[in-house]
Amino acid sequence: MDQRGSIYVRNIKPSYFLRRILAALLTLWIALTINFFLPRMMGGDPADFIASRTALGSPEYADLLREQFGLDKGLFEQYIAYFAQLLQGNMGISYSVFQVPVSQIIAQALPWTLLIVLTSTLISFAIAWVLGMLAALKKGGVFDTLVVGGSFYVQSMPYFFVAMLLLIWFGFELKWFPMSHALPSGLGDDVPWYTMVGYIAQHAFLPVLSLVVVGLAGRMVMMRSNILQIFSEDYITLAQAKGLRRRTILRRYALRNAMLPSFTGLMLSLGTAVGGAITTEMIYSYPGIGLTIMNAVLSQDYPLIMGCFSIIAVSIVAANFLADLIYPFIDPRVSLA
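^ that's the sequence the OP posted. Answer follows.
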């Protein structure tokens, strides 16, 4: 084990693990409890909604649906049943797509969400780090002015406006990329894998590009500000007094410290990636978790809403826990005691 690894092990105390695990479980329980009550606070009745669509609003049919869905029971009894099912890994049956398990619907939507959101998040952070670093090195120059001014301009535009501009320009006018969905319609099972990969990449390009453009600006400005703040520290001033070049100081001393706050933002972004980008998936009709949540809310599908938000809650708590464990490896000054 190298010196960095030994420092990392020394900085972790067993009591810290226990406290963090208990805190994570408490946070998860609170999130899942809120997750149970929020759909029921929206108003309306799923049984009446389904009956109005399938049985001309028959009260008898609505009563049968309430009994079948367990909605005729008390709220506390429903809450206990909800947690008992979750502990068994059972998210229930969807109301809007009846007899289809919620886990199956999520399993079909989640890969598409992870494809566009994770890809755009990683690309956005990578480009933001490079642009922020270059802008900080050329502070006050033409490049710095253009990058910072452009980032503020992009941030001032609503996200849906950027997505629609890209859709109209690249999809409708130039016809370079598909305007909707994740795959072409009527696609057979005998399509070669490399052709399938090409179709997936074509359909994902515009959603990914829109997320990168919108997320890039704020992350780049944050990285630039972090580097400029690090350059005002005493140890950087000492390095400059010794005659070290600015690029050398950045590479050896400033960059790692400047990336620490951005690393926290990256881990949080990865945790929320499971939730998808509802606006993106609506504009591009992309079949991810965000669009699934939107359709579930409109259909008053309690199990599907709770299932999607449960996955989001677990991913965010897990990402925070993982970030806490990784942070001392990046910054040995942090002690997990």
